[in-house]
Amino acid sequence: MARCLVVGCGAVGGVVAAHLCEQGQEVLAVTTNEPFAAAVRAGGLTVIEDGAPRRVLVPIATAVPAGGAPWDFVLLATQPPQVEEAARAALPLLRAGGRMVCLQNGLCEERVAAFAGADRVAGAIVAWGATQVSPGVVDRTSAGGFSVGRLDGAPDPVVEALGRVLESIGPVQLTANLRGARWSKLAINCAISGLGTLGGSRLGALLRHRFVRRLALELMTEAVEVARREEVVLEKVSGTIDLEWIALTASERRAAGSAGLVAKHGLLLAVGSRYRRLRSSMLAAIERGRAPAVDFLNGEVTARAARHGLDAPLNAAVQRGVHDLAAGRRRPGLDLLRTLFAQTRLDASIASAPAPS
Fold first, then answer.
1. Strand, coil or helix: what is 181?
2. Hey, how many other C-beta atoms are within 10 angstroms of the C-beta on 260?
3. How far apart are CA 29 and CA 8, in angstroms?
4. Are 129 and 278 in contact, with CB atoms under 8 Å apart?
5. Which among 349, 284, 240, 341 has a CA at the least distance from the CA of 138?
6. pLDDT by residue for the chain (357 residues), tens digit each?
7. Phi and psi angles of residue 265, each rounded to the nearest 5 degrees, phi first
8. How many CB atoms lie within 10 A of CB 256?
């Protein structure tokens, strides 16, 4: 058994906290969402999986505790913009030899390691989806598990113990290349989360459109090119999705169609079918009046591209578009994606183009 402090009890954090409580781990969930905490205190946390709801009694607080016994694992399940603040607040509560565990998308392990130390940080890449339905109710929208590792080498006994703790939620794959796994997931999230936010719909509905799939392929290609400059060895996502193969070749970028393009579109159709109920967490954040994590996804690609003298114009356009949505200057929808697609066809260099309108 392990003592697990789950900081961030939204969709992913709620599912994690509920499963760990059912497993018999000692858990405290932390959320700054007062209505959510009140609902969980009053009636437990309702988790919907495969359409079947169940209630789980989850201890919950609205702030990181000021003291008490140390925790074996601090599971950071906030949105990326809040991860550093949450990690700093919880770090004094981590036991010697314990781990801060980043569940967020993006490259958050590097940010936390900058002040906590790489030896105190692990990553758990989430290969399933969830959404918050209402205060105290979370819906797991797809099955899957985790890739678990640390920044500074192969899994050690503590990381292996973390994997055993998380196995109650889904299959765990230990990785000695966390950075490569993170970059592969980042490339996918730049497409899925970015386009899902601008499109304002669930993944399955969006990926039925060929032009949306083409945008997704181009966004991932830009991310893969930056990863190569960062000397990252990309890992397959969930052991099957190979980002090096998905990235468009120079000839595929120019072609209207080819056998390779057909195969890549087919893969995205399969992804859309499997994760058809997945809804962008950035869109949910905007709807709740919170800052979207686009600077940690598409923005991470554009910033690192600039360091290497590369352009990532489509990721930059998505980043601007999401900020416009958050500021109320645009409304999400399929027409917004159509405009973005049209802009990219008219001008191969869209770095200075306005955000889609």
1. helix
2. 14
3. 7
4. yes
5. 284
6. 899 999 999 999 999 999 999 999 999 999 999 999 999 999 999 999 999 999 999 999 999 998 889 999 999 999 999 999 999 999 999 999 999 999 999 999 999 999 999 999 999 999 999 999 999 999 999 999 999 999 888 999 999 999 999 999 999 999 999 999 999 999 999 999 999 999 999 999 999 999 999 999 999 999 999 999 999 999 998 777 899 999 999 889 887 778 889 999 999 999 999 888 888 989 988 998 989 999 999 999 999 999 999 999 999 999 999 999 999 999 999 999 999 999 887 655 433 334 443
7. -65, -40
8. 5
E-assigned strands of 17-140? 26-30, 45-49, 52-56, 60-61, 71-76, 94-102, 121-126, 130-134, 137-140
CA distances from 54 to 43, 92, 150, 194 (A): 11, 34, 33, 31
* DSSP codes joined into one string, 241-269: B-HHHHSPPHHHHH-S--HHHHHHHHHHH
| Cβ 170 vs Cβ 128: under 8 Å | yes
What is the reported pTM? 0.90
Asked if residues 154 and 74 have their Cβ atoms less than 8 Å apart, the reply is: no
Question: 35 burial class (0-12, 13-18, 19+ CB within 10 angstroms)?
Answer: exposed
| DSSP 8-state code for residue 145 | -
CA distance 6 to 17: 7
